[in-house]
Specification:
Largest sheet: 5 strands, mixed
Number of domains: 1
Strand content: 5-15%
Helix content: 40-55%
CATH superfamily: Cytochrome P450
Number of strands: 13
Strand order of the largest sheet: 2-3-9-6-4
Order of helices and strands: EHEEHEHHHEHHHHHHHHEEEEHHHHEEEE
CATH topology: Cytochrome p450
Radius of gyration: 22 Å
CATH class: Mainly Alpha
Distance between the termini: 68 Å
Number of helices: 17
Structural class: alpha+beta
Length: 464
């Protein structure tokens, strides 16, 4: 069958001459709006905005096609381009064809092996322990997303770069954290192709963003200079040690300081934001799904039967927290904190046996739609069920139905770091506390390049 142009793809109703499909765009929750539109138009559709064509893909079979590394590759889409003033040629925002990506990946990959994780383990337990200690002294309901951001920022700061943000000291967030939060919000707003939005954002917002980025860069540069002067500290090497001392085995070159700044900022962004959201969604389900907290607690109590507040988790015990891992995965399925990723055609190719794509054409994979595809997950795809991730269920599932960390060579390099950190934190929390959510609260999801619960508060009480 002959293919047809992508111009014939389904599109939202009420297309306007010249402006295109601007009606119905949601600048606040764009990925949730994208998934809702897929429910109406099908697993592939387009928007045209002032001549720019955006193609969205969400069905598992179509995602399998665009994840074919022989025909497709990562595309640094508009939202990621808006992060380039922060991430530059760091792993997340650099094009695959740029030599900086391959060199950085070869230098940094050893920092995320099982052996490296073993070296990070004790510090992860220490930071998570500080979190639960602070909770024991907090009788009032807590904003869960804010608390998880404190945890993950502190974890990546200390383990990656030997930097303490003082997250559990009881004060206001570190200025670095506040600047990073504002910069991410600005990148999301600027990344939406809505006519006139640049004028709305205004000169003042752009100036504030420039000042925030300068603060981020200056802080990281100071950390690098201090480490160069002091040399590696005692104990296992952290990510900064590796970036300062490791030589790329293929080129014989190390990373220069400018690139180390960009890689550091990349890991601080990617290493805290998505993990914080995943933890917050997991805690939402633990607190609100009947029986889930009991099952998780039974697993943890069986592993750590001695009562008391102290809990020392050995490195080898973390992979045995299998039910908690299923809770995390099912939370990431329903609420993928990285809700989309871009793919670009490398050769002439055809999707859905119909639509022809030329080299350079790109699509956005709507992961939040993919993860609720009834063809892959069944008619109850919207229901929370950790047992979707038993070994038998995984073996029988579409191989491209679950993509919370992207795909291929450009999949998230830190995913094992994130899982290890999340399992430790959740184990300590469910072992030590009873969790109570406000019964009148209904889950609201905010988007800031990533997704996380908005306004979800949790009350904790030490278990008796």
């Amino acid at each position: 069958m002959a293919g047809v142009s992508v111009k014939t793809l389904p599109h939202p109703p009420r297309r306007i001459p010249i402006l295109g499909d601007v009606l119905g765009m949601d600048p606040v929750t764009p990925m949730q709006a994208t998934a809702a539109m897929m429910d109406r138009l099908g697993p592939i559709y387009q928007r045209r905005i002032l001549g720019t064509r955006l193609v969205f893909v969400g069905g598992a079979d179509l995602v399998a096609q665009v994840c074919d590394e022989t025909a497709w590759e990562k595309h640094v889409g508009r939202p990621l381009q808006q992060l380039r003033p922060i991430g530059g040629d760091g792993l997340f925002t650099v094009d695959t064809g740029d030599p900086a990506w391959a060199r950085g990946h070869r230098v940094l990959a050893p920092g995320f092996t099982a052996e490296a994780m073993r070296g990070y383990h004790d510090r992860m337990v220490q930071v998570a322990g500080e979190l639960v200690d602070s909770w024991a002294e907090t009788p009032a309901p807590m904003d869960v997303s804010e608390q998880m951001t404190r945890l993950t920022f502190e974890t990546i700061g200390r383990i990656g770069f030997g930097y303490r943000f003082g997250s559990f000291d009881g004060g206001a967030p570190d200025p670095f954290v506040a600047a990073m939060t504002r910069a991410l919000a600005h990148a999301q707003s600027a990344g939406l192709p809505i006519p006139g939005l640049g004028a709305v954002l205004g000169r003042k917002a752009r100036a504030r963003n420039a000042a925030d980025i300068a603060l981020l860069e200056d802080t990281v540069a100071e950390v690098i200079a201090a480490r160069r002067a002091a040399g590696p500290g005692p104990g296992p090497a952290d990510l900064l040690d590796r970036m300062l001392t490791t030589v790329d085995p293929e080129t014989g070159r190390g990373l220069d300081d400018a690139n180390i700044v960009r890689q550091t900022l990349t890991f601080l962004i990617a290493g805290h934001e998505t993990t914080a959201g995943a933890l917050a969604f997991s805690l939402w389900h633990l607190a609100t799904e009947p029986g889930v907290l009991d099952a998780a607690r039974a697993e943890v109590d069986a592993m750590f039967p001695t009562p008391g507040d102290e809990c020392t988790i050995d490195y080898a015990q973390v992979p045995r927290l299998r039910y908690l891992r299923r809770v995390i995965d099912e939370s990431l399925r329903l609420w993928p904190t990285a809700p989309g990723f871009f793919r670009r055609a490398k050769v002439h190719t055809r999707l859905a046996d119909r639509y022809d794509f030329a080299p350079g054409d790109w699509v956005l994979v709507a992961v939040n739609a993919l993860h609720r595809d009834p063809a892959a997950w069944g008619p109850d795809a919207g229901r929370f069920d950790p047992d979707r991730f038993t070994s038998a269920q995984i073996r029988g599932r579409h191989p491209h139905a679950f993509k919370p960390f992207g795909t291929g060579a450009r999949a998230c390099i830190g995913r094992q770091f994130a899982y290890h950190e999340m399992l430790i934190a959740l184990a300590l929390i469910v072992r030590r506390f009873d969790l109570t959510a406000d019964p009148d609260y209904r889950l609201k999801v905010t988007e800031q390049l990533t997704m996380k619960p908005d306004g979800f508060e949790l009350s904790v009480r030490p278990r008796r």
